[in-house]
Amino acid sequence: MLSLHPDVAAAENEVHFFDWEEHYSQGLRWYLGQMPFSSPHQLTVEKTPAYFTSPKVPERVHSMNPGIRLLLILRDPSERVLSDYTQVFYNHVQKRKPYPSIEEFLVRDGRLNVGYKALNRSLYHVHLQNWLRFFPLRRIHIVDGDRLIRDPFPEIQKVERFLKLSPQINASNFYFNKTKGFYCLRDGGRDRCLHESKGRAHPQVDPKLLNKLHEYFHEPNRKFFELVGRTFDWH
Predict the structure, then answer these.
(1) Which CATH number among 3.30.565.10, 3.90.550.10, 3.40.50.300, 3.30.1490.110 corresponds to the domain 2-228?
(2) pLDDT tens per residue, range 146-158
(3) Nearest alpha-carbon partner for 52 in 71, 76, 29, 24
(4) Which of 36, 37, 49, 111 lies 20 to 30 Å from 7, alpha-carbon distance?
């Protein structure tokens, strides 16, 4: 979405420089080579979601640029767990490989399986604390991912302000695609929608298990809200 702004040059793909050793070992020159061409007045951005949960990334980013501004998009942790599973599930479906049901991951010996990686990746306070060892909170702008899906324009306006960009993105740049069920972008008469992997229906989960999931995240969410000084409309 930020690529709509004329003062932003955005990398097209996830770069995985700071979290993949085979990339990081090639040095900063390799990283810069993955960035788009940009003018002196433009901000260059890249997005790699795995950076947030990788313990070694914050120090590496700080070593490169301690004054960098960071964007973090977060959604309801329970929804994030389901999205995590859904993405991997469809990857297996496309390869015609079997994949266990989400219940087989979430439940072990009749209890919530707290060893499931998707659960650990959704403990936001744990991962954010690691980043706050190297960056002050004012350097990290948290985008409400659920609101970004429901009504993207106000969230993008906040990002523009955080990045000190002139307000160039307008409400007219977004339109709701009824077929896909989410907002798409309109840029100079050209329409762009998120990849087909976005907006997929999540698996049906037993309500009792879903409640267990919500209960599990209640305390971690409280700690996260306390850490960032704001609340989110999560279960």
Answers:
(1) 3.40.50.300
(2) 999 899 999 999 9
(3) 71
(4) 49
